[in-house]
Each structure stands twice: as structure tokens, then as C-alpha cells.
Design brief:
Blueprint (H helix, E strand, L loop, with lengths): L1 H23 L2 E9 L6 H21 L1 E3 L2 E11 L4 H13 L4 E3 L4 H14 L2 E4 L15 E3 L4 H14 L5 E6 L3 H16 L3 E7 L8 H10 L3 E5 L2 H13 L5 E4 L8 H5 L6 E6 L9 H12 L7 H18 L4 H7 L4 E4 L2 E4 L10 E8 L2 E9 L1
Parallel strand pairs: 1-3, 1-4, 4-5, 5-6, 7-8, 7-9, 9-10, 10-11
Antiparallel strand pairs: 2-3, 11-14, 12-13, 14-15
Helix pairs in contact: 2-11, 3-4, 5-6, 11-12
């Protein structure tokens, strides 16, 4: 009998300890993140991941309480390699992992096909960098972005080229991705409207390394500028080979080429490049300087492009959790339309499609390989 009593006491003590442990343990809530973490765009994808990670670490350090529960955030990060098919596979994995929201994807060509999977699952998706207008024109209630679109970015590039650079003729090249084609097409529309002559329209691909055939053709047309729709991994070598072939045209590009790494990829030809970014320049962001300092202290190097937007995306998701007083994905989605969040990148107010109501396009050039702000245009 004495043995049984001791056993019962031991079991009761174990049960009490387990109960107490459960009561005080943080509930783990997963937020997904997707970007290319391998391949030629990995530096940009890792930059986005770093921004999201920095936000997660800060929020966990401060402590998060939702509906009386202590929450610990976990970033469930996935590599889509910039490939649309892989993007849908990792999107489904995140759904299966029970993430409450997703920061991503980075590229328009991966963000768009993945968006249907998140929509079907009722999971919020905030892209920090996808600019193709089609992303938010699908009628999904789950799609949001923290950048202006190519329908705003490309006309800004064309208008600047016509008014400031006196460009009268242009050759257009894209990398055959949803992003590159969309940017080039929107640029072409505005260029034609401004009376700029389109010398040629060509396509390469986002894995290409040799552009001499296209550039030789372009050189024969002698345009004032070349507009390239694509990323820095191909845009840099494209610009470099253009200079090597003696092409004198100015090089125009969008946010895909507009990175600090461009000068490394293009060499001295970076000084021929004028590019745009949808959003405020870092030095003009309300909290840009402080964020840059935090980022460099945490990672030991400067940020690339969209880390501030990825950082803000995490905070917007948490803001929605607080307003919904829930970590239920559907309740998070339900409160997103009335979001009014002031973050590193500025005020995030969304229209009915999930696009920012107030956008800014920043234009840059490179001086001795350093990226410098040229102008800002409010949209």
C-alpha cells in the first residue's frame, strides 16, 4: 500500500509539472518566407530573408501576446530558386506546415502562380518585391504587396528618359519572365505615347550569359538607350558586354537590376545604367537610417534592395494578428483591408486589390560603381 501511495504521488507530481510546463510554454506560430536562396538571384533573396528574420527576432525578444497566449514566431523559410514550378511546390509545403501568413515571393514569376495556392488555403501573402500588376488583379482577398507596380514604375523610367535624358529612340530587351516582360511592355507603352521610337524588341532568358548576338543587332540600330527588363544577374553582364562591343546607348532598367551588386556584375559599365525602384530611397524612408544600421550590425554588411519591405511585411502580419486578436489565418486576412501601418518604408495603406494607395518611384544612377539617388516621383 505504501508503494502504491508513493507511485500515485509521483505520477500526480509529474502530471502537475507537465501541466505547468504546458501553461508557461510559448505557442509557436509560423510565418512563411519564400525567395530564391540559390542561383544568380540568391543575394537578393537572402536580403529579403534577412529583413524578415530581423523582424522575427525583434518581436520575439520583446514578447508577443495574442488572445492571452504567449506567442513565439518562427520563420519557415523556403527556396523557390526563382522558378515558377518550384514556387508552387514550396507554397504547398508552407500550407501543409500550417503557416499563418507568408512574406513572399520575391519575383513576380514565382509570386503569381503561388498566390492561387495561398488564396485557396485562405492564407495572407505579402510580397515585398513583386511588381507585375497581374499579381493583385486576380481577385484574391489574400494578395498584398509593399511596392508599387510596373504599371507605375515603367512609365516613370520612360518619362525620365524622354524628359531628362532626351532619349528619342530605344531598343527593348526582356528576360522572358513575368517580371521582365511586364516591365518591358509597360515601358514600351509609355515610350510610344511619349513619341520615343522603338528600334527593336528582343527577348533573352533569365539564365543567359552571352548577349552578343542581340547586342550586335541593337548596335546596328544605333538607339539612344537600351531598356532591359530583367534582374541584375543577367542585366549586369548585358550592360558589360554592351560596353565591350562599343554600344554607346544609355542602359535603362527597373528594380531587378537596381542593386549594389550591379557594379560588381557590370564593371565600369554600371556607370551607363539608370534604374528605378518602386519605393522611397533608403535615405528618405522614415526609419531608413536606423534600419540600415540595425541590418549592418546584425549581418555585417549593407542591405541590397527589399530587406526593409520584408521586415515591414512581418510587422504588418503581427499588427493584423493583434487587431484580429487571433492567429487564425482567415481572421488575419479579414482585418487586412483596414491596415494602416507606419513602418520603415513609410505608411502602408492598401486599396481594394491589395496594392499600396500611395506609391513612390525612385530613380538611380551609378557613379564610380556606387548607386546614387537621381530623383523621386510620387505616384
Amino acid at each position: 500500500m505504501r508503494f502504491e501511495s508513493g507511485l500515485k504521488l509521483t505520477m500526480r507530481a509529474t502530471l502537475i509539472l507537465a501541466t505547468c510546463s504546458t501553461a508557461y510554454a510559448d505557442d509557436v506560430v509560423k510565418i512563411g518566407h519564400v525567395a530564391p536562396l540559390t542561383g544568380g538571384m540568391a543575394h537578393l533573396g537572402k536580403d529579403n530573408e534577412n529583413g524578415a528574420t530581423l523582424a522575427i527576432e525583434e518581436i520575439n525578444a520583446k514578447g508577443l501576446l495574442i488572445a492571452g497566449r504567449k506567442i513565439k514566431l518562427l520563420l519557415d523559410t523556403q527556396d523557390d530558386a526563382g522558378d515558377p514550378r518550384t514556387a508552387t511546390q514550396v507554397a504547398q509545403k508552407l500550407v501543409d506546415d500550417n503557416v499563418v501568413a507568408v512574406v513572399g515571393h520575391m519575383n513576380s514569376g514565382t509570386t503569381i502562380p503561388a498566390s492561387r495556392i495561398y488564396s485557396d488555403a485562405g492564407i495572407l501573402q505579402i510580397s515585398p518585391s513583386a511588381t507585375n500588376p497581374a499579381y493583385t488583379l486576380q481577385g484574391f482577398k489574400t494578395t498584398y504587396r509593399l511596392v508599387t507596380t510596373d504599371a507605375q514604375q515603367a512609365p516613370a523610367i520612360a518619362t525620365y528618359a524622354a524628359s531628362k535624358l532626351q532619349v528619342r529612340s530605344v531598343a527593348i530587351v526582356d528576360d522572358s519572365t513575368a517580371y521582365g516582360q511586364g516591365l518591358a511592355t509597360e515601358f514600351e507603352k509609355q515610350a510610344r505615347a511619349l513619341g520615343i521610337k522603338i528600334i527593336s524588341r528582343d527577348a533573352t532568358n533569365d539564365r543567359a550569359v552571352d548577349f552578343r548576338a542581340i547586342l550586335t543587332k541593337i548596335k546596328g540600330g544605333n538607339p539612344d538607350a537600351i531598356m532591359y527588363g530583367g534582374m541584375d544577374a543577367t542585366g549586369g553582364p548585358f550592360a558589360k558586354q554592351a560596353r565591350q562591343l562599343g554600344v554607346k546607348a544609355k542602359f535603362l532598367g527597373g528594380d531587378g537590376v537596381c542593386s549594389p551588386k550591379l557594379s560588381e556584375l557590370a564593371g565600369q559599365a554600371a556607370d551607363d545604367v539608370i534604374c528605378s525602384e518602386p519605393g522611397q530611397a533608403l535615405q528618405k524612408m522614415p526609419q531608413g537610417a536606423a534600419f540600415a544600421e540595425k541590418y549592418e550590425k546584425r549581418y555585417g554588411h549593407s542591405l541590397q534592395v527589399y530587406a526593409p519591405a520584408a521586415y515591414d511585411a512581418v510587422y504588418i502580419i503581427v499588427d493584423a494578428m493583434k487587431r484580429a486578436n487571433s492567429t487564425d489565418p482567415k481572421k488575419i486576412v479579414a482585418v487586412m483591408p483596414v491596415t494602416d501601418y507606419h513602418g520603415v518604408t513609410g505608411e502602408a495603406l492598401f486599396d481594394s486589390k491589395g496594392d499600396l494607395r500611395h506609391g513612390v518611384i525612385s530613380l538611380y544612377h551609378y557613379v564610380s560603381g556606387k548607386k546614387k539617388l537621381l530623383d523621386s516621383v510620387s505616384m
